[in-house]
Amino acid sequence: MEEYLRQIPSVDQILANESIENLSKRYSHQVVVDIIREVIDELRQQILAGEISEDFAISTERIVKQVIKRTDEWINPNLKAVINGTGVVLHTNLGRSLLSQSAQERILEVANNYSTLEFDIEAGERGSRYDHLHELLIYLTGAEDCLVVNNNAGAVLLALSTLAQDKEVIISRSQLVEIGGSFRIPEVMEQSGAQLVEVGATNKTHLSDYQAAITEDTGLLLQVHTSNYRIIGFSKQVGLEELVELGGQEDIPVLSDLGSGTLVDFTEYGFSPEPTVQEEIAKGADVVTFSGDKLLGGPQAGIIVGKQKYIEQIKEHPLNRALRVDKFTLAGLEETLRAYLDPQTLLERVPTLRLLTLDSEELKAAAEKLAHGLTKLAGITVEVAKGYSQVGGGAFPTEKLPTYLVKVSSDLLSAHELNQRLRYLEPPLLTYIQDEEVIIDPRTVKEEELEMIIAHFTTVLEEE
Ligand SMILES: *Cc1c(COP(=O)(O)O)cnc(C)c1O
Fold first, then answer.
1. From 32's CA, which of 3, 135, 285, 330 has a CA 20 to 30 Å away?
2. Whose CA is nearest to atom 11 of ligand 1?
């Protein structure tokens, strides 16, 4: 042990190494010194703990390699681009919606300049950050008023806190949803200080169940869209119109949490029916909440639209300040919403909508192009086959989007190893595994990424 400890080079010896000198030129000297100390210290701890094997040799070269690797890891971005080969369009773990070209430009513009964020140019005085989206949202949804917050979970929490704190909220048992990543209606309800009153059964709820549950403490009737699941078979839900009528009679507001609210009717593209935001407003919902980055195709945001009387109360709630939306989101969302003004160019402009409605001939051509490039490589077998993509983001849970998949298997590596090695390259390529084959779905792959994928496979196979 003593012998090993004596062999550890000093920080200065490592610093004198040529590669490290180059590293110090690119990065801060202090950072490099700190990382050298860290690596040396870890090595010392390992030796003291007897964690190194008999034939272990301490070499400067080895330490230098580690220092370079760690400095690169530390200096390079952690939050970075990946190639999404999974075909899941609204992949929550991969950032959900991609933004339109014009939304990206507007975000850069407000990043690079002072802006009218809270300034009214005409009046020459302080304005409101919420005014920028007002006209667009009113026009597109038919609502009286609107508000945008950090995300939809925040929107629901804020609306419940404002409208139903210390009051009872009636909801059907079939709608007590959990959205991936810790959003559960009963828990959000508890956090808001509202009391949950569940009515009906898992499969069936009747209007009379709501009627029977109303007391003088009832503050809200809540409808939550079952975004990520469907109850089929012997089932019945109360329609929004009926709830609105009941609410009107009893003077109780109705809140509809749409989740992945959409402004376009997806049945036009062969999807099963999903309620649009405008439909919910037309049916008389007092407040409707939905996400900015799900089917809408914008940045992360929670959008609240509805009757002015309630939206004004919601705006006044102190929690609104805590959930405040930032200028980049506002710029990106404004531009995304603007795309909806022209249905002719909408699908071309908003990537989420474009990817969801891609033509299967286009997908087939992309799959074949990719397969053609991969077939030339030794050590893998490549096949193009019909399959399905997923919408993701807890939207259209039962919808299967026809696509063409590129399926790769290798004699040199297991599907698991291949999937992992592709993920370790720059930019990481994310694939999925089915029946011991690595699958790439071209739906979520950009044209220019096809070449990168081929290069990645080349790299991995050459290493073998
Ligand atoms: C996705 C979803 C939410 C949460 O929205 P975020 O934008 O992820 O915060 C809430 N309610 C429903 C019904 C949803 O589908």
1. 3
2. 259
Query: Which residue's CA is minimally distant from atom 15 of ligand 1?
Result: 259
Phi, psi of 303 (to 5 degrees): -110, 130
Q: Classify the C-alpha dihedral 168-169-170-171 as positive or negative.
A: negative
State pLDDT tens for residues 287-332.
Answer: 999 999 999 999 999 999 999 999 999 999 999 999 999 999 999 9
- DSSP H or E segment with residue 247: helix 240-250
Q: What are the φ and ψ backbone dihedral angles of 297, each rounded to 5 degrees?
A: 85, 25
Structure tokens at 26: 């690119």
**Per-residue pLDDT tens digits for 228-273:** 888 888 888 999 999 999 999 999 999 999 998 899 999 999 898 8
In 3D, which of 155, 113, 165, 111 has the Cα closest to residue 328?
Answer: 111
**Closest ligand 1 atom number to CA of residue 394:** 15
Q: How far apart are CA 19 and CA 264, in angstroms?
A: 57
Structure tokens at 454: 């081929």
Strand-pairing partners, residue 405, are: 385
Nearest Cα to Cα of residue 262 among 280, 247, 276, 282: 276
Query: Which atom of ligand 1 is nearest the CA belonging to 177?
Result: 13
Give the closest residue (by CA) to ligand 1 atom 13.
259
CA–CA gap between residue 150 and residue 355 (Å, rounded): 25
Cα–Cα distance for residue pair 442/366, rounded to 1 Å = 6
Burial of 343 (0-12, 13-18, 19+ CB in 10 A): exposed
CA nearest neighbour of 174 among 226, 240, 242 = 226
CA 441 to chain centre: 19
Are 32 and 24 in contact by the 8 Å Cβ rule? The answer is: yes
* Bond from prior residue into 427 cis (ω within 30 degrees of 0): yes
Do 22 and 72 contact (CB within 8 A), yes or no? no
* Angstrom distance (rounded) from CA 133 to CA 339: 13
Ligand 1 nearest-atom number relative to CA 155: 9
Burial 180-197 (b: 16+ CB within 10 A, else e): eeebebeebbeebebbbb
User: Quick check: 99 and 299 in contact, CB under 8 A?
Assistant: yes
